[in-house]
Amino acid sequence: MTTVPDSSNNYCYRHPGRQSFVLCQRCGRTICPECQVQAAVGVHCVECARQDRREAPRVNRGRPAFLRNLTGREAPVVTYVIIALCVVVFLLQYLPGVTSALQFAGLYVMPSTGIPVEPWRMLTSVFLHGSILHLLFNMYTLFVFGSALERMLGKGRYIALYLISGFGGSVAVALLADPRQPVVGASGAIFGLIGAYFIINRHLGGNSVQLLVLVAINLVYGFVVPGIAWQAHVGGIIAGAVVALIYVRTRAIRQKGLQIALVSAVSAALVGLTVVAAVV
């Protein structure tokens, strides 16, 4: 889909063929999931973890083997959990007596009241889907981009990216769409992942022409076909791209505090836009 030129700065120092975005918290070298050892704060490379064990024998010696896939690389557990959660919720929607209660609890907006008084709906709606095709398309796209991003960013950054992207999609719906129209689906969050992948790939020097074509086709499809919340797509991709831009500009270990502050500021800005949408 895209190509990234060879560069030792963008690839694991022990496995030159494995692209990664995660740095050892001790020495700053790029490390792939197989070379990441969980430390008290963040992750360390194999050499730094070995040094830690010499200095403090109680340091965590690594992740369980069942969290690694057949290739030996760590499985994208967060992505798998999100997919499983969406599938389970979708199946629960068809159980007698559960359908209405589940949709009532998860819908982004309620037709009778407009902007919801329960703010969690802006995120719970991301785990609901309107049809099997809707679910399958979203989960496939999530698997493709989510797996790659989780391995590059690490679990914490990836979770923040996914949730903020979904939140950004809901905020865009509140600002640009009819607030009385219920909205469900992970499309906003997934478009955020696509936007983030584009930013990170460009930062690494990759060719993103094919990705741009894919995004353009999907955005146009959302505008043309009725019943699709294109607002969520636009809001999600903007939010995801902004968060990814923060990640690539604050990659250095010494900038971790700044990175957290900037990502928190993006979240606060989205909350502010929600308030604006509620009072306008």
From TrEMBL:
Biological process terms in GO annotation: proteolysis
Keyword entries, A-Z: Hydrolase, Membrane, Protease, Transmembrane, Transmembrane helix
Alphabetized GO MF terms: peptidase activity
InterPro entries the UniProt entry points to: Peptidase_S54_rhomboid_dom, Rhomboid-like_sf, Rhomboid_protease_S54
Peptidase S54 rhomboid domain span: 118-249
Topology relative to the membrane: Multi-pass membrane protein
Name of the protein in its database record: Rhomboid family intramembrane serine protease
